[in-house]
Amino acid sequence: MTKVSEIEVVDDIDQRLMHQYAQGDHSAFEQLYLKHKGPLYRYFVRQIGDKTLAEDLYQETWGRVIKAATSYQSQAKFTTWLYRIAHNLLVDHVRALKPVDNFSELFTEEQDSDGLLPSDKHSPYADAEEQLKASLLKRCIVLLPQVQKEAFLLNIEMGFTAAVIAEIAGVGLEATKSRIRYANQALRECVSEKWQEQNDER
After folding, report:
1. Which residue of 21, 58, 104, 146 has the fewest C-beta atoms within 10 A of its own C-beta?
2. Which residues form the RNA polymerase sigma-70 region domain (predicted)?
């Protein structure tokens, strides 16, 4: 099963839960909250790097979900709808988003093999090198333009397609694809440059 189909299955379940909550089933909302609270909170933290503001926006997002429950339409996928609310709150409340302060390792070996990060898996120091690359990646993500950073994180961490990200951000599909492409290109160049600088200093 692909990542996209898994998201679609989750959305089918979430849509049912949302309708159940709209009809007064509070346990349905509890299931939705427990399922999405971690990823949603990380979305805010990694966008703005301010945990206090992230907590405020996170709570406000759920508040808006509760208020809009009765008007939720089944044709809207829940995850897209949820992150659209979150995206709008970021736009409304944050004029100059701060750098990401906390960014954990997002990349599996499969993603690494696509060329985003330089790699030498045969080195006896591979683990230490991977940690260094993750640190360099974190520093490079901070330098991305905000729209590219958001598109990149939603694509890599959340597994959202470009079409879903376009709907969340309210922009065209081609513009979204360009943001993801430019983000990946910029990160490859940035990490490679900083990696070379580290090697030169050794």
Report:
1. 104
2. 32-97
Query: Residue 124: exposed, middle, or buried by beta-carbon count in 10 A (0-12, 13-18, 19+)?
Result: exposed
Hey, where are the domains in the chain? Answer: 3-93, 109-201
* Residues 74-122 pLDDT 10s: 777 899 999 999 999 988 875 444 433 333 334 433 344 344 444 444 4
Cβ-Cβ contacts under 8 Å for 89 (sequence gap 6 or more): 57, 60, 61, 64
**Residue corresponding to tokens 């996170």:** 58
Cβ contacts of 97 within 8 Å, gap of 6 or more: 47, 48, 90, 146
Q: In this structure, what token pair is assigned to residue 11?
A: 């959305």
Domain at 109-201: CATH architecture: Orthogonal Bundle (1.10)
CA distance 183 to 73: 33
Top-tier CATH class for 3-93 = mainly alpha
pLDDT digits (tens, 9 = 90+) for 29-72: 999 999 999 999 989 888 877 788 889 999 999 999 999 998 88
d(CA 57, CA 44): 7
Whole-number pLDDT of residue 83 = 94
CB-based burial label for 110 (10 Å; 0-12, 13-18, 19+)? exposed
